[in-house]
């Protein structure tokens, strides 16, 4: 067994030495390195960010009234003998017609983006910002603008919108996602 291994090693050794020789007579080889941008990865990240944003989007009464399940997280109010329990939510603006109009305008813009109409979505989001400059939805609008511009390949505008978002709302839960997306958009630019 030992002789067989020694014999196999001796047979393989000259081949190893032949492959290890360096040809000094060969001329220099030109090497071209190309950076290939992965637009697919950026698009996947943008799609993922849209899904995260949807978690921070309020729902209007119209969109929740057709749902099949009602969940109650907490109830406050006064019990009376003349009727059922009347819930009261501090700061509840669901019955405020101006707030309903504001939320619906934002949801319309998001629906345009969901339908892949990103040019129209950016127009609607910019119009929303002009119409509701002090809106509580402004963080969502700025983040959505960055995503929509990114989807359109307008990386500079997307970066600007996301930087504005991160500057105005440094405590927002999506700031780290915005910073990640800023880096990706800068690389693809």
Provide structural commentary.
It is a single chain. By secondary structure, this protein is mostly helical. Helix content is 60%, strand content 0%. α2 (39-54) runs antiparallel to α6, α4 runs antiparallel to α5 and α5 packs antiparallel against α6 (138-152). The chain is globular, with a radius of gyration of 30 Å.
Number of helices, where a helix is a run of at least 4 consecutive DSSP H or I residues: 8
Kindly state the mean pLDDT as a whole number? Answer: 74
Based on secondary structure, the structural category is mainly alpha
Helix content: 55-70%
N-to-C terminal Cα separation, in Å? 63 Å
Count of strand segments: 0
From the spread of the alpha carbons, the general shape counts as: globular
Main sheet makeup: none
Topology:
Elements: H1 2-20, H2 39-54, H3 61-64, H4 97-114, H5 118-131, H6 138-152, H7 155-168, H8 175-188
Helix pairs in contact: 2-6, 2-8, 4-5, 5-6, 6-7, 7-8
In short:
With 189 residues, the protein is mostly helical. The chain has helices at 2-20, 39-54, 61-64, 97-114, 118-131, 138-152, 155-168, 175-188.
Provide tags for this entry.
189 residues, mainly alpha, 60% helix
